[in-house]
Amino acid sequence: METIDTTTAGVAEARQRVLREVGEAEIKFVRLWFTDLVGRLKSFAITRDELASALDHGMGFDGSSVTGFNAIEESDMIAMPDPATFRMMPPESGEHASARMFCDIRTPDGQPYEADSRQVLRSALDRMAGLGFDSFKIGPELEFFLFRMDEQGRPHTLDAGGYFEDTTMDAAVNLRKEIVLALEEMGIPVEYLHHEVGPSQHEIDIRYADALQMADHCMTYRSLVKEVAQRHGLHATFMPKPLFGENGSGMHTHQSLFIGDSNAFFDADDPWYLSDVAKSFIAGQLRHAREISLLFAQWVNSYKRLVPGYEAPVYVAWSRRNRSALIRVPLYHPGKEKATRAEIRCPDPACNPYLAFAGLLHAGLEGIERGYELPDPMETNLYELTAPERRSLDIESLPESLGEAIAAAEESEVVEKALGPELRDRLLALKRREWDEYRVQLSAWELDRYLPML
Questions:
Q1: pLDDT in tens, the chain (454 residues)
Q2: Of residues 170, 196, 291, 348, which has the active-site annotation?
Q3: pTM to 2 decimals?
Q4: Fewest 10 Å CB contacts: which of 51, 189, 225, 281?
């Protein structure tokens, strides 16, 4: 797994490497990438002649048109390229060679910008380091759908395949392989690729990495999947629930804390092979799951996925084998201590990964700092329990709507720690606007159901 050198000498060496590779590959354009508050990729390109200056001083831009950034009266922003993220873009026929770098956003006086998603995650990692941990490892499983769009813009599935389908029912075998090759060309290692449960639904799993690097990988992954699909005349979507009556797309996220090269989640003497650190971390995420739902499931549509019956976890509990629980701890295999981890199954792939990972980390660290105790695992199928049975076991549910998630986040100290009060209020305002716009819409279901009888 690649390690990024963030020392001054390391950054200087990375800068020289970028300039050398751009010259050797005769790259004409370099794309500068960053993320708005809700996780949409923003990009502009510079020419090779501007690269050295951009690496030293950044590139100015108007932040007032970027969702979640400053208002027009204080809109000057600087995009500072991170040379460690330099990668050649996969070649496309007829195009000049190009590359990309992620940027950190700064204010005109050179300070980190509080609404920069990468900075939010960096702040969470600083809190982690203050508690003695060196890295937060993340391994996400991003699911997506492939559609062929008709002239009216309606989606049509490509196949009727199911989980792990390996027949002619899986119409996108070669396309998945093309996506994997594109990811690997950009230095993103892949572990698994397969057809998912839903028709035209797919999953490609990235090998685990440090949280900030993985958030960058997620943004690159989503961009490449869409670009490759578009070249084949298809539309790829990370929408959490694009098809009624079918499973939605999740982003099951495997997590662990490391001290040096040692997994802080592993304890050989524990019956579950979980350290006290791991138990408190999981307990923190369980206790604060409702509050941080807005960070890992941030759209109206996210809560169409988080309903019982479609393999999406909604009940706040943990288990070792039971996939109906919110958090699953995969079974330990001797000699695989570094693989000890907690898999949280509620995030969806349309989230802002920087904010989602930051929220998950803050919730876990809250558990460690406050010494939360981990409840017993729930190995029963939670979907089969009645509401009174769940209440008797003190099992909460995730929010059932974006409006409920907003209300939970509004009162959350963990969300305020993760985002800061000003950025939290900006996100809440954006999400309230989305929720209000949704609430006043009339659906075809309502008209079909109520118009004839009311």
A1: 445 555 566 678 888 889 998 888 888 899 999 999 999 999 999 998 899 999 999 998 887 778 878 665 457 889 999 999 999 988 765 567 789 999 999 988 889 998 899 999 999 999 999 999 999 999 999 999 999 998 888 989 988 777 766 655 556 778 888 999 999 999 999 988 888 888 989 999 999 999 999 999 999 999 999 999 999 999 999 999 999 989 899 999 999 999 999 999 999 999 889 999 999 999 999 999 999 999 999 999 999 999 876 667 888 999 887 777 899 998 777 778 888 999 999 999 999 999 999 999 999 999 999 999 999 888 777 777 778 888 878 888 999 999 999 999 999 999 999 999 999 999 999 999 999 999 999 999 999 999 999 9
A2: 196
A3: 0.93
A4: 189
Separation CA 443–CA 380 (nearest Å): 36
Is 252 a residue of the active site? yes
Architecture of the domain defined by 8-115: Roll (3.10)
Query: Pick the catalytic residue: 118, 176, 345, 362?
Result: 345
Q: Is 437 part of the annotated catalytic residue set?
A: no
Per the annotation, the verdict on 143 as an active-site residue is yes
Is 141 annotated in the active site?
yes
13 is catalytic: no
Selected catalytic residue, list 36, 82, 104, 143: 143
Q: 78 Cβ partners below 8 Å, 6+ apart?
A: 57, 58, 59, 60, 61, 105, 106, 107, 108, 110
- Report phi then psi at 104, rounded to 5: -95, 140
The answer to whether 362 and 124 have CB atoms below 8 angstroms apart is: yes
Residue 302: φ, ψ to 5°: -60, -35
Q: Is 323 a catalytic residue?
A: yes
Q: Which two tokens stand for residue 18?
A: 């970028």
Domain boundaries, the chain: 8-115, 123-445
Please pick, among 203, 267, 291, 366, the residue that the annotation labels catalytic. 203
Catalytic residue among 207, 323, 391, 439: 323
Q: Which CATH architecture has domain 123-445?
A: 2-Layer Sandwich (3.30)
Q: Please tell me the distance from the alpha carbon of residue 343 to that of residue 359, in angstroms, as a whole number.
A: 15
- Active-site choice (62, 184, 270, 400): 62
> Any catalytic annotation for residue 343?
yes
Q: Could you say which of 36, 82, 104, 141 is catalytic? A: 141
